[in-house]
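Quick question, first post here. What does this chain look like in 3D?
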Amino acid sequence: MNQNAVHTLAAEQLSLAHGKTVISEGLDLTLPTSKVTAIVGPNGCGKSTLLNGLARIHKPSAGSVLLNGRDIHTLPTRTVAQRLALLPQDNTAPEGLTVSDLIRFGRQPHQGWLSAWNHDDQQAFETAVTAGDLEDLLDRPLDTLSGGQRQRAWIAMAVAQQTPLLLLDEPTSALDLGHQIEVFELIRTLSGQGKTIAMVVHDLASASRYADHMIAMKGGRVLREGSPRQVVTPELVRDLYGIHCDLIEDPATGSPLLVNVRRAH
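> Answer (accepted):
Ran it through. Tokens below.
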């Protein structure tokens, strides 16, 4: 696969449901290439379901997901795995698994049943280790790491998969502020290397600061889409979360910051 080729991921009239419960209906969106897209909105609005739909984990009830212009459900599993990686919200690994073992798992889509570890695998492994700043942690079992270190290891596994498209479901969930920044800065680095990234994010301030593009959802619908400056307004914040706020500009990044936040009555 040509790592320099442009790869696209889009939804056309996408509808997603859990059984008879419709979650999203008629969604149209395209992830901007080589950019970070943040999907934001209140709990239960369909963010994670949308991400799973884009990753071919959740089969649509109508419409389609297009990977490089082709329906993702018509493509071979290995082809999809070589182009798109999903990091779900809840990651579990066998007890005693080391950081090195985990990152090596990322090479599976590129290996046949009988193929040995080769130069390309080693190069991808080393690139992933460097991206996650994990050189000193390779022999450590995952269950001995801090939350931020563990999340960096999982992202490094996805980097080793060498996919141009990366989908992350709440990559900073349950992390403290320092570890959140660790992970967000890694995501920005990967985007700078040309990866197209979509992430579900709960914190609107972090989404505004670290994303190039934002998709605001409520009730399974996309309310607004564009740059954080275009999307985040006091009216949208009230509509999404039922709160009033004022907005100021982040002096470092120019992204919108919420201040004077209070509950809407």
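The mean pLDDT is 90.
The longest strand covers residues 9-18.
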